[in-house]
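Case study: Exodeoxyribonuclease III.
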Amino acid sequence: MKIATFNINNINKRLGNLLEWLAASQPDVVCLQELKSADGQFPAKALEAAGYGAVWRGERTYNGVAILARGAEPVLIRRALPGDPNDQQSRYIEAAVNGVVVGCLYLPNGNPQPGPKFAYKLAWFERLISHAAGLLALDVPVVLAGDYNVVPTDQDIYASRSWSKNALLQPQARQAYRRLLDQGWTDALRTLHPDAPIYTFWDYMRERWPRDAGLRLDHLLVSPTLKGRLVKAGVDRDVRGAENASDHAPAWIELTEPGAGRRSVSGRRAPS
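Here is what the predicted structure looks like once written out:
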């Protein structure tokens, strides 16, 4: 079972890019972020023609999240993160696909910091931590995938001081991410590639893609019930180099079927 996350950065503007990647990679489940599309403009028919069922929560101009399933219809569980009924931003959706609960998230960026946007980021993170603990208590297979807008450690960013005051690298956000992992979640990419530089985002500014000046913002966390089934993880870097590309590349994991056991993992470099 292949599960991917991809900040598409405007699904209608980059629908061709998305469809091309789906055909080439054929993930079984895809978490999309930054749809930048109202619900009525979501390209459900084009995705259905490509073989994918979908659930989504759109938002005009900003945000928006979706879960796609190849040859199946995701079973919607929730369309918002619990904990703040007044929060109207489209940043979380959760569905069951082939026996796995999939939470797709787009955590707030938080810039500029300090300020209300950073406070919102941290408050949203606290809600995520609380909900994640509840999911673990269910003792079912869960994947929390998406754009976390957090660079977990200095290993997850190119050598630079230019981001030091950015909300993505602040100690409070990194500590929140660590607290989430400490519940028992496994950071799949870093676990299978402990030493390799792994980037999922390259800003459009300052030639950062040609210079490979990247950051790892997109993460797939798996619950303890899935850790033993995790066999591969990588980033489809070439997608970022295509014409009209998002500033993110898809990240993905592969899981064995239940009871199949874990195969040995060869290599330490994230596949490109």
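For the exam, be able to explain this: Residues 262-272 have pLDDT under 50 and may be disordered.
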